[in-house]
Design a protein that fits this description.
Rossmann fold; about 50% helix; five-stranded parallel β-sheet; alpha/beta; single chain; 12 helices; about 300 residues; Helicase, Ruva Protein, domain 3
Amino acid sequence: MLESLTTEARLPASEMLDALGALELVELINSEDARVAAAVGEQAVAIAEAIDVISARLADGGRLIYFGAGTSGRLGVLDAAECPPTFNADPKQVIGLIAGGLTALTTAVEGAEDNPKMGEADLRSVNLSANDAVVGIATSGRTPYVLGGLEYACEVGAFRVGLACNRDAELTTRCNVNIIPVVGPEVLSGSTRMKAGTATKMVLNMISTGVMIRLGKTFGNLMVDLRATNSKLAARATRIVGIATALSEKEASELLQNCNGEVKTAILTYHAGVSPDGARQLLMHHNGHLQRALKSSAQPNGASNNVGG
């Protein structure tokens, strides 16, 4: 069965891999990595469809749940973990599950990926509902843990996205949308943490970022919903307010402090000429979309309808 998978095939250019020098190794891996972006690009329509549906689900109170085994599971957990600090998303809004539990993030858990019931059990443990969207991640497209989880998600009525790197992947029969970037054989045969892992990371970046943009977590290309949990992010928040208002660093910092560190509130307070509480009410009325809130305001400070965008 494995011999039929593209990701398990041998790459002719690397058949003498152990005879190459360090520079030759680097150049070969780099040349193969260059193929990944094109493979992901071929899946643009499917990725966009996933973003549209998932963002609608989240806007209605649903959740995005990634699940997978091994590298696939780790990448899903990573993407989920980055949503709260980057977009100030509720930690319960985007969830990452990995076969074998959190221990499997750093240590292989024998047999975890081979049990379809574990995929179902993990989704049950987070109370999967018909309001949610799941992304089953399996490079091979046939991982039992993922297949079992997708079957349960189908029973529940959740929206299902399949992410694999092999054509005719088995998981496609269980999903509403399938994203299949075919990156070809790995330089190190079967080591799907390489090109397949890179493709997976790129797709997950697109999905989570696209969804959060649709939910109003950005202003133009600025991360206005970031959570300033460290000095770097605090400095970034001040810089963003300065960019969006043309205020000096000192003025932007003071404005941000007056708005309890809330970047969106600070920008809207300045441009709409309202109090921080007034800005919060406007944002609430527009479901957190700063651009929409600005367009509905009188904008006495001369902000255009496309400030930041």
